[in-house]
Amino acid sequence: MKSRTSLRIHRLLGLVLALVAWTPVHAVESASIEADAGADAWRFRVYLDDREIGYHNFYLQQSGDTRVLRSEANFEYRLMFVKLFHYEHENRETWNGDCLRSIESRTDSNGEPYRVDGQLQTGRFRVDSSAGEADLPECVMSFAYWNPAFLDQGRLLNTQNGEFLDVEISPPVAEQLLVRGEQQSSFRYRLEAGELRLDLWYSANNEWLALESEVRGGRKLRYELL
User: Residue 199: what are its φ and ψ, rounded to 5°?
Assistant: First the structure.
């Protein structure tokens, strides 16, 4: 039987990786996806409170109006020598401007598999996922944290399970944020979608800097930019 801690982390990861949605030290160096030449990259260490539990990396290649986003996450949570939770996620998205053209994701959440396949068709975005099939609007965005245009959306596609979620995003609040060991001016947004509550930080140039969410019990899950 899964522990309550394992189940809580499981549920939260499924939401935060709504993409989108967490092997500890040295995991970043062992990532299987590598950046293409000229690609933009966001590499994050992921922490649960003060414990490093894994990584989540994003690589974006752009050619004209076409953008290809690849991401990979790998998390492992242990209590003493007992592994309570393991999570692996790979995702590939093709974009035309700010609209998804296709998506393919595969996830292993503590032994439970998920998949999402989506394709732009005439007048609709067709999604086939572990949860079933659905026809979405022609222009759909995922939880594309790397693209600040997603902050203007009212509904977003969860790239782990294919759900199309209503979201609310608060106006930005100016804050100082520690990034790579230095204080930096930033803007914080609060995103809410169902049970999900998370904070996102962006630079004055709209560069994604950090993510933080509260796990049940008051624990903090956070992404720190490398």
Answer: -110, 140
Q: Which parts of the chain are beta strand (E)? A: 40-48, 51-63, 66-79, 82-96, 99-109, 112-121, 124-129, 132-136, 155-157, 164-166, 168-169, 173-179, 182-193, 196-202, 208-215, 219-225
Domain ranges, ordered by start, for the chain: 4-163
pLDDT 10s per residue in the chain (226 long)?
444 444 444 444 544 443 333 323 333 334 456 656 568 999 999 999 999 999 999 999 999 999 999 999 999 988 888 888 899 999 999 999 999 999 999 999 999 999 999 999 999 999 999 889 999 999 999 999 999 999 999 999 999 999 999 999 999 999 999 999 999 999 999 999 988 899 999 999 999 999 999 877 788 999 999 9
Q: Which two tokens stand for residue 108?
A: 């292993």
- How far apart CA 121 and CA 35 sit, in angstroms, is 29
Q: CB count, 10 Å around CB of 102? A: 16
Distance CA 212, CA 214 (A): 7
How many residues appear in the chain? 226
Whether pTM > 0.90 for this model: the answer is no
